[in-house]
Amino acid sequence: MLLDKEFDRFFQEVIQSLSPYLGDLICIGGCANALYRFHELASPASPAYLGTKDIDWAVPQKLPLRDRKPLSWFMTEAGFKETCFGSGNQAVIKYCPANPALSADLEFLCPLSGLPGSRNKASPPTSHEVQAGLMAQPLCYLEILFQKPWFIDLGKVPEFKALHGTRVQVPNPAAYVVQKVLIRDQRRGLPSLAKDCYYMYEISVLFHEALDAMAKEYSSIKSGLPQAWIKRFRTKANQLFQSEHAEGPASALRVYEEAIAGRRGNSSKLNADMIVRAVNKMLERMQ
Fold this sequence. Notes:
Elements: H1 5-18, E1 26-28, H2 29-35, E2 54-58, H3 71-77, E3 81-85, E4 92-96, E5 105-111, E6 128-131, E7 134-139, E8 150-153, E9 167-170, H4 173-182, H5 190-206, H6 211-222, H7 227-240, H8 247-264, H9 272-285
Parallel strand pairs: 2-5, 5-7
Antiparallel strand pairs: 1-2, 3-4, 6-7, 8-9
């Protein structure tokens, strides 16, 4: 289970509607963090934490048709409606299910670099047509997530046995962590920043027995990234989790205490020192 029965049904409907394009899309955000549990290198873990009921997909700046109908056609057939959130130059496009009672949506995101207006830090573009009729939100550093993605067979999720053989791409966890750290200097709310800290902690726990694999993935991706990005990642990550009083463990612990501890009961306790030790063990391997 990713979240609850309602969300799992929604996720399955999304997968079915996007199936012709799954090879071009990468599931990111909280859903990727939940799906990591079903990767062969992941250690057994408690149920995932999803801070929102959004399903985020990374998509190239130009999504090829390749003799397929446009992705917007499949989404319309499935009943998704394009909805504008916000106003003016801060508006973003999301795709909502026809049932208004279902508080979930899809969002597509594409790399910002190279798009018209991308150098305007004060007002970067908030939407870009990646394919006729399909809008995505450009985001800094998103291209990192396209490097050597991993695959999850959805049939390994007990609730998705009917989707056996359907593979969804997720970022390799090293790329996920690097991108989460780098986007912290973007204009994002405190809840999002806190969730990202908790997601990074969860990855350090999920793959604590596969740190060699994470180190290998990191070594591979860093060679394809600007050295300034790598330097910034190392500096920010070390600052974020430098001690139990730093922002990273404090934020992750707050998310745990406010949204997770009660659901899991008192049998699973977490403190800032545990978070620092787990994350820094992972970061030490990502050098």
